[in-house]
Amino acid sequence: MPQIWMTYDELATLSGCTPAEARLRALHLSLDRRKSRDGATRVKLDLALTARFFASIREADFDLDGAIEALQTTHRQMAELLAPPGFRERGAA
């Protein structure tokens, strides 16, 4: 089983409560807690919360095609800015 570690803010989003309530829930459930290098405290999800996390990912409506198109557009714009003067794309007449 994978280990999923979340901040109290992330756990609150997953649980539909405030970060303070998420912290109390983590204490009540005796979830493992660890201070990360970035200074944030993270809790390790138990089996039920991990299942809820994976269910939320499955239910999420990701617009992958839109995200890919946005990345490609950004790449083209950056390439145009970085191209040396007089450089033309292959196949352009």
The DSSP helix count reads: 4
Overall body shape: elongated
Structural class: mainly alpha
How can the largest sheet be summarized?
3 strands, antiparallel
Helix content: 40-55%
Strand order of the largest sheet: 1-3-2
Averaging pLDDT over every residue, what do you get? 88
Rg estimate, integer Å? 22 Å
Low-pLDDT stretches? none
Number of E-type strands: 3
What letter string, H or E per element, gives the SSE order? EHHEEHH
Number of domains: 1
Share of β-strand residues: 5-15%
Give the terminus-to-terminus CA distance. 56 Å
If you had to describe this structure to a student in words, what would you say it looks like?
The chain has 93 residues and is mainly alpha-helical. The protein has one domain. 54% of the residues lie in helices and 11% in strands. The chain contains four helices and three strands. The protein has helices spanning 8-15, 19-28, 47-59, 64-82; strands spanning 5-7, 33-35, 41-44. Helix 1 (8-15) crosses helix 2.
Provide a short characterization of the protein structure.
The chain is built from four helices and three strands; from the N terminus they run E-H-H-E-E-H-H. The mean pLDDT is 88.
